[in-house]
Structures are given as structure tokens and as C-alpha cells.
Amino acid sequence: DAFAILVRTHGDRMFGVARRILREIDLADDAVQQALVVAWRELPRLREPDRFAAWLTRILVRICYEMSHASRIASVRVVPLEGAAEPMAADPLASVADRDQLERAFRRLPPDRRAVLVLRHYLGLEPHEIAETLGIPTGTARSRLHYAHREMRAALEADTRSAVAGGRSA
Predict the structure, then answer these.
(1) For every residue of 98-161, which 3-state class applies, written as one string?
(2) Range with the lowest mean pLDDT among 4-13, 19-28, 62-71?
């Protein structure tokens, strides 16, 4: 019964994290299920019960890594982000184009880069919290976050350049 309460408490957040890393609803469902099974089996070994959420997220992120490598997730279809902040612009077509551009750039990132961006920008974790969640040094978390932002920026710029080049030849 206590585990069921924990699942209800953390389930939606887990699904959001998995979906944003894996970019596929069915894979995210599978990842959450797998993470919960692992958590159930490993629960007696949890040393710090007050760190349950971070421990569960670490399990989930590792499973997402494994699943993305196994399924060659790089060619997954575009799935719009839920809960994305609405832009201030009045043009609804511009916001759709912006979200689509962000999605294409995000999809180009490897899963470990997506994971740190999800933990930072979706869950709002600070770099030291990301480090604790992933079980890595804080400097490594900061480095991964820096490179993830840099790769995202480069992907967005490449997408913009290709759109401009495509517009000139049309």
C-alpha cells in the first residue's frame, strides 16, 4: 500500500521525464514500468528514504538511456511537448513553428544530453541536484549541462540556417 502511494505521488513526474528523454509515449510507459519494478526490487537497499525521489529518478534515467540505445531512438517521429510555456507572441503559427524547431533540435541531442536538460528545465533541478540524481560529480553535471545547451543552440542555429537557405532557393 505504501509503495502504491509512492507510485501515485511520483508517477506523473516520472512519465514526464521519460517522455521528454525518450520522445515516444509507448517507450516512456515501458520505462516507467521498468523503473517501478526495479524500485520495488531494490527498495530494501535504499539507504536514504528521504532521497526516494532522486533515487527513483536515477533509476528511470538509466533505464531511459538503455532503452534509447537499444531502440535507436534518433529517428523517432516528432512529438509535441506538453506543458510548454506559451510564448507572448500573438501569432499562433509562429509559436507552432518555434515549438517544432525546438523539438527538432532537441531530438538531435543524445539521450544523456536530453536527460540533463529535462532535469534542469522540466524538473527545475539545480546542477548539484542533477548530480545527486544521476549519481555523478557536480562538475560533471555542470559540464553535461553546458554541452547540452551548446549542442541545442548549435542545432537551433543549423535549423535556422537550413530554413533560410531553403527560403532563398524557393
Answers:
(1) HHHHHHHHHHHCCHHHHHHHHHHHHCCCCHHHHHHHHCCCHHHHHHHHHHHHHHHHHHHHHHHH
(2) 62-71
* pLDDT (tens digit per residue) in 106-152: 888 888 888 899 999 888 889 999 998 888 899 999 999 999 999 98
Model confidence, pTM: 0.64
Read off the pLDDT of each residue in 8-26 and give the average, rounded to a whole number. 88
The CA distance from 11 to 1, in Å, is: 15
- Between CA 142 and CA 76, with CA 67 as vertex, the angle to 5 degrees is 90
Q: Which cell goes with 48? A: 536514504
119 class by beta-carbon count within 10 Å (0-12 exposed, 13-18 middle, 19+ buried) = buried
